[in-house]
Structure formats: structure tokens, C-alpha cells
Amino acid sequence: MKLIGNYTSPYVRKISVIMLEKGITFEFINESPWHDESQVPQYNPLGKVPALVVKPDEVWYDSALIADYLDQLEIAPALLPSDRLASLKVRQIEVLADGVCDAALVIVRHQMLPPEQQSESELLRQRNKIQRGLDALEKHAAQREWLNGESLTLADIATACTIGYLNFRRVVPNWCVARPSLVKLAEKMFQRESFARTVPPSA
């Protein structure tokens, strides 16, 4: 398998962590979707990462879908419950974590614009999304049912990748204030070898 993307993307990191946790051998192809010569559109017509090349005529894209595909290979550890409703609950937390990343990415890209093109109201809107999303993730982490529990889940990986991205881009420097369960989750997850091997390069 080939994983197309770069570790500055939390979505790419999520898939790489999953594959490392499952012991799946893959080749990492470092490609950014943001420059004109990018090869990413050859794998994903939307020009987004990650893309997972299983074989020349089988390519998967969108991190949530790739994560689902990898878990359906039935390679331990299982990151989604076998019960369909329980699986959806875990995946909803993944969607929540990914949504926080989406808002953070909008902020990062927006701040690259010339100052006269930046909108403070848009930045505030995205920051509010992040704060609400983190509050919801904190509640899930405190309940320790589908997130921050005894068994590793897709929700754990997605949430930790989100926190890693917030740290990397310094989008919400005070994200940890009044969120002790997320802090505990992050500390636990960042100690795993899969996370140590996928730390984003220095910006």
C-alpha cells in the first residue's frame, strides 16, 4: 500500500497512525496538495490528502472512509465496535474531531491571506466552532465510553491528531484550559510509538 500525503495534515497523520497501530506495511509518499505541481490529483480528483493506494486500480480517499476501510480488513486491533450503532457513535466522535480540524485549517489558510483580505468575523466564527467542538470532545472523554476508555478506538486517534494539529499550528494555545480529560487523553496518546513516529515536521 501507498499513503499519499504529508504529516502536517492531521487527516494524513490519522491514517498513518491507524496503519502503524495495525502493523500494516505501507510506503509513505510525501506530497502536498497546495502547490501547482502536486501529484495528489492523480490519486484523488478532489486534490485532497490523504489518499490510500491499495493497487493501481484501487485508491481510497477521505480520511474517514479510509479509516473505515482499514478497520474492515479485520487486522487487530479493531478500532471500531462490531455493533453497528456503537460503531456509529465512535465515528460521530471522529467526525467531531475532524470538524475541529476543518475549522483550524480554515483559520490557518485565512491567516496566510494579505491582512486587507482577512475577516475577523470569519476567524471568530471558526474559533467558536473549535471551542464548541472541544467542549463536546471533553464531555465524551470524561464519560470514557467511546473516547478515552480502556480500549483504543478510532475516536481516540482522531481526537489526538486534532489536538496535535492545534498544538502544531498554535491555533488555540489555551485549548487545554478546563479540559482535563482531553489533556489526559493527549498525554496518553502522544506516548504511543505510532504518534512519536508521525510528529509533524517543524514549520
Spans of at least 5 consecutive residues with low confidence: none
Helix coverage percent: 40-55%
Indicate the CATH architecture of the largest domain. Answer: Up-down Bundle
Put simply, the count of helices is: 8
Radius of gyration, Cα only, in angstroms? Answer: 17 Å
SS class: alpha+beta
Would you tell me which CATH topology of the largest domain applies?
Glutathione S-transferase Yfyf (Class Pi), Chain A, domain 2
Strand order of the largest sheet: 2-1-3-4
For the record, give the distance between the C-alpha atoms at the N and C termini, rounded to a whole number. 28 Å
The proportion of strand residues reads 5-15%
Order of helices and strands: EHEHEEHHHHHH
Protein model, in words:
It comes from Winslowiella iniecta. The chain has helices at 10-22, 40-43, 63-72, 84-110, 120-143, 154-169, 180-190, 193-196, and strands at 2-5, 27-30, 51-55, 58-61. It has 203 residues and is α+β, with helices and mostly antiparallel strands. The protein folds into 2 domains: 2-72, 3-Layer(aba) Sandwich (Glutaredoxin), CATH 3.40.30; 84-193, Glutathione S-transferase Yfyf (Class Pi), Chain A, domain 2, CATH 1.20.1050. It has a 4-stranded mixed beta sheet, covered by helices on one side. The longest helix has 27 residues, at 84-110. It starts with a strand and ends in a 7-residue tail after the last helix.
Provide the descriptors you would attach to this structure in a database record:
Thioredoxin-like_sf, Glutathione S-transferase Yfyf (Class Pi), Chain A, domain 2, maleylacetoacetate isomerase activity, 54% helix, GST_C, Glutaredoxin, four-stranded mixed sheet, 2 domains, alpha+beta, glutathione transferase activity, Glutathione S-transferase, 203 residues, 8 helices
